[in-house]
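Contributing new records

If you add data, match the layout below exactly. Sequence lines come first and carry their own label; structure lines follow with theirs. Keep one chain per record. Anything else will be rejected by the validation script.
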Amino acid sequence: MPQKGRDMMTLLLLLLFLCEAQSWVASKPNFVLLMADDLGIGDPGCYGNKTLRTPNIDRLARGGVKLTQHLAASPLCTPSRAAFMTGRYPVRSGMASQSQVGVFLFSASSGGLPPSEITFAKLLKDQGYSTALIGKWHLGISCHDPGDFCHHPTSHGFDYFHGLPLTNMRDCKLGEGSVFTAAFRLLVLLPMQLIAVALLTLVVLKWLGLFRAPPCAFLFLFLLATLLLGLLLGFLHYFRPLNCFLMRNRDITQQPMSYDNLTQRLTADAAHFLRRNAETPFLLVLSFLHMHTALFSSKDFAGKSQHGSYGDAAEEMDWSVGQILDVLDELKLANNTLVYFSSDQGAHVEEVTVKGEVQGGSNGIYKGGKANNWEGGIRVPGIVRWPGVIQAGLEIDEPTSNMDIFPTVAKLMGSPLPQDRVIDGRDLMPLLRVRTRRSGHEFLFHYCNSYLNAVRWHPPNSTSVWKAFFFTPKFSPEGANGCFDTHVCFCYGQYVTYHDPPLLFEISRDPRERNPLTPTSEPRFWEILEAMQEAAARHARTLQDVPNQLSLGNLMWKPWLQLCCSSLGLSCQCDREDQDGRQSP
C-alpha cells in the first residue's frame, strides 16, 4: 500500500478510535450526589421558604426536577445513609437498631455497613469510575482491629475519602453541650445523689447514736463518688479527640476536628476532585456536616441570616452547593453530569438550646421531624438535574425514595442489579424523563429502627396515597410537635401508642396527617387496611436474619479499635489540614 494510503488508513482508524472514546464517555454520565444532614423540606427557598436564602439549591431545582414526595428510608442518620448507599431497607443489612440508640456514637464501635453490602460506589468503581466521598460517613470504620477498616468508605467502593468518619455532634464543639446529658443524669448524677444521701444518713445516725457505721463504709462511698466523678470528667475530656476527627483516606489528618473554615476546606477538596477527574467518569458524594448540631459557619456567614446560627449554617451549605455547580460549568461537565440533592432525614425539631434558641430546621407544613415517621421526619428535599436529559423546572409529586439512587445509577451505566439480594429502590429515570407518570413504588415501608412503623400505598390507577401507622410516638409535652422531653422520639414500649386497627391517613388529601380516617369517614377503610397489611406480610417474608450492626455489643466503645494519630496514650492531637481550604493533590 502506498505511503499516502497508509497515512489515510491510520487517520481513519484514529478518528474511529476518538469517536468511540467520545461515545464511551458520553454514555457514562458523571454523578454528583449532595447529601445534607437534618435539613428540613421547609428550609430551601424552592420548597417555599421565603426568608432563608438558598439561591444555589433553588438554581439546581430550576434546572432540573423537584420531587415533592421524596422520602428517606429511615428518619435517622445511620440507617438512612445505609439505605441510600445500598438501595435497600436498612433492616436488610442489620443497620436498624432494636434498642433506643439508633446510630453510632463512638468511632471505636465495631458495627457498620457490612463488607458484603454492595454500594453504588462499588458498582461505579467496577465500571472504571473515579469515586470520592467528602464529608460525613457515619457507617462505621473497623470490625475487629483498628487496621481492618472493614466498614470504611474505602472498603465500600470509594477511591478517596476526606471527612468525618463518625458524625458531627454537640460534643465535638466546645461550649455546645452534650448529646449524653440524659445518660450523665442517669449513670452519674443520680448515683452521686444516692451516695450523698447515704453519707448524710450515716452521719446523722452516728450523731444520734442510733447506728455506728465502720469507717470503711464512709471510705467506700467516698471512693465510689470519686470514681464516678473521675469517669465523668475523663469522658468529657477525651470524647472530643477520640471521636471528632477528620481523615483523608485511612489516615487521620486532624484530631480533634477544627470547625475553622471546615466547609471551605471540604468544598475546596471536592472541587479539586472534580478538576482532577474532568477527563474520566466520576462519582462525587459530597455529604455535608450541615445541618446537624453542633451548628457552625465561617466568619463570612456567621450572623448574616435571619434565622440565627441555623440559618447561617444553611446559607453556608448553599454556598458550597453553588461552588460545586460553578466548577461543573467551568469544566463544561454540567450536561454530562447527573446532580442529586437531598437530606438524610427531616429537620430535628427538638433541637432547642437552654437559652431557647431554635437550632432545628423547618419541615414546612408536615408533622413531626427527625427520628419519627410522620411526614416531617421522612419527607425530604429531592432535586435531580441533568441538562438535556431531564426536563428543567418539572415538579413531581409521586412517592420516591432515597433508595432509588442505587438502581438509577446502575441502570444509567448499564450494570445489572445484584441478583443475590433484594433491591428495594426503583429506577427514577422513567419518572424523571416523563416516560411514565407513576412511581415505581406501589408500597413503601417506613421503619422506626428495626420496627415496621407504617406502610404507604399508592394503588395502581389511582391518585390516592394512603398511609397506615401501626404505632405512633408519644409527643411530649402534650400538644408539642415532637418528643422534647427525650430530645428524640423512641420506637417501642412506653414511648409509643399502638394502634389496632392501624391509624389510617389519605396523605394525598391530608398531607399534614391531622385527620385519621374511620370506617364512617372512609367506606373502603377495612379494604384499604387489608391490602396494606397483606403487603406488609409479603414484605416481612422477604427479610432474612442478619447480624445486628447496632446491637449494644457493636455500639459500645472498644479501646482496641480506637484510632489515634499519636502514640501518647489517649492525647490524640494532630493537625495536618490546610486551614485555608487549599488541599494538597
